Amino acid sequence: MLDHCSISHKVLWSRSFTPAAAQAAASSSSPVNSLIREALIEGRTAEDKYEKDGYAVKWSFVNDLELIFVVAYQRILQLTYIDELLATLKNIFVKLFEPFLATFLASLHAATSGSAIIASGQSAASWNFAKAFENWDAVFDRILHGLESKAAQDRKARYKPVQISIEPSPPSDDMSTIPSQSAETTVDEEQIARNVQALKNRLRGKGARGGRRGPGRSDIGSGRESLPGSDSDTPVKRKTKTKTQRKWGEQAPTESDMASLDFSYEKPGDADANRGSLDLNALVDRDSLGTRTQNGMYEVKDWEFGLKDSAADDMISKALMSSQTSKPTSSSGSLGALGSLFARLTGSKVLTEDDLKPVLEGMKQHLMKKNVAKEIADKVCEGVGESLVGKKVGGFQTINAAVRLALSNSLTRILTPKTSTDLLLSIRTKLSAPLPSSQQRMPYSITFVGVNGVGKSTNLSKVCFWLIQNGLRVLIAACDTFRSGAVEQLRVHVRNLSMLGVNGATDSKGRVELYERGYGKDAAGIAKEAIAYARDHDFDVVLIDTAGRMQDNEPLMRALAKLVATNNPDKIIFVGEALVGNEAVDQLTKFDRALRDFSAASGGVGKQRGIDGMLVTKWDTVDDKVGAALSMTYVTGQPIIFVGCGQTYTDLRQLRVSNVVQAILSD
């Protein structure tokens, strides 16, 4: 078994498996300290294993992140999985924590250069490694257990006792030694086999043809037989079943019969009936419910990027498989590299375009794999390259590490909101603003726009649930007067939302209503009427649902711009898919430009209004390929307010910049 394992820059993580090993690790003369002093700094060993005080020590490097992985065990033990363990630990640890480690190194270098505080606001001495690597113990246990089990199985297979089995000797090549067999016996066996097969064929044909025997009977004596489905069989015509028509009785359906089958509108008493039949637990996911602050505000959860247990297990298994197929590299191969690094701590290199070109090309391909639009990936990498040309890189830092750090800073700068994303604060500010005594308070209006089929109505209902939970009265305006079923869809959402409780209440009746005028009407006029209705009936927020518009369809975009110019909503939210890829640039650029141009041409109070924020849907379908967030933010300069990540009303999340950057930079 192992005695000690550690991951060091300064010591980031370590574990001792015996009290003696723990005591030895704490002393200055420990095998690990001796390894660093004698083998790494002084270069006094050329072997792939270092031995000290009865311990054998093996190590591996990650030069880009300045990490040393060390494993110590009793020299007398023959542990065959040590090289595989080091390779697996290095691979998985870097994949899990590379963004954190890159930021830590940046802070450390900034501190040594005289600037103790960097953009993240943390000093080099204030990092909490225990919290950062709190999940690493479980991952390490799974890796170690898997390798130990594999080694135990290999030992069992290697020392498996030989089982002596008495078997007849192999047949001789001498034909004279083969026992003779009578021809009669052979013929009898063949005939029996043919008889059995023929009987099966007849029974099968009897079942398929209703007992009628086909003309091709088996000739048992000659061994010739006709199988079902052969050319000799008579084809059987099967009767095709026709759809049974619905019988309405002797007379045609009456108007009352047709009315009972019409579900396009809610009938009196339907709400009470639905209340009893609808499973309210299916409308909300208790695990994804937000949290309430001390002042009673309901906040949606943050989207968190991290490997689930299954994903970590898959990564471990893949790493184990790859380590089996590839030959483990010896530690001595990297020894000279690290020795030269220790010797060149004060050295430096000035980066040139030729140095950065291959690294930036790899970064661009990585961004595109993360679903970042190609045009955006080109521009981001170009900006990173310009910021690094002429920069001095020294010490442990490599070109790849410098580019990765610069890319992380660039992504953080792009994704950081330029305006407030606190939508609830904006609503309460408007509602609490003082007004003249003769003027009525206007509701806060939010218009949801986007292309077809991205989930505007569904995610509008999620935002409505969030607003209701914060004690606001919401009016939903059905301004999609084109798509069949759009009004009915919103009616169902309003019915469901009215049944859900608010902060312990039994329902939300009266807190949400639907304003609709059917189909084929002017959407701008319906929105204006809805805002007036909300003002007269003391609604706090109006959520305006619009029809899907393709960015290249000028007549439809003019109609949408007319709605914006006429009603001047407080917030225009673009709803887009997380799967959009390269289309994000075209969609958002043309959508924003069309809104600004056509709203200015339409006149009204909402001249030259563009997109104010974004809501990204289907976020749960992309895993760590979250590049659409970067593309959308880069094009518009506006923040992502929410992301939709499920099918229930609670499946709404807020994005933190650090989580998105970590997901984009992850392998």
Automatic annotation (TrEMBL):
Ranges of biased composition (kind: Polar residues) = 174-185
- Point to the regions of Basic and acidic residues compositional bias: 264-273
Q: Which Pfam families match?
A: SRP-alpha_N, SRP54, SRP54_N
Write down the superkingdom of origin: Eukaryota
Q: Which SUPFAM superfamilies match?
A: Domain of the SRP/SRP receptor G-proteins, P-loop containing nucleoside triphosphate hydrolases, SNARE-like
Q: Which UniProt keywords apply?
A: Endoplasmic reticulum, GTP-binding, Membrane, Nucleotide-binding, Receptor
Positions of the SRP54-type proteins GTP-binding domain: 639-652
- Record's keyword annotation contains Nucleotide-binding: yes
Transmembrane in keyword set:
no
Q: Where is the composition biased (Basic residues)?
A: 201-215, 237-246
**CDD domains documented for this protein:** SR_alpha_SRX, SRalpha_C
Q: Give the bilayer topology.
A: Peripheral membrane protein
Q: Where does it localize?
A: Endoplasmic reticulum membrane
Q: What protein name is recorded for this chain?
A: SRP54-type proteins GTP-binding domain-containing protein
Annotated source species: Somion occarium
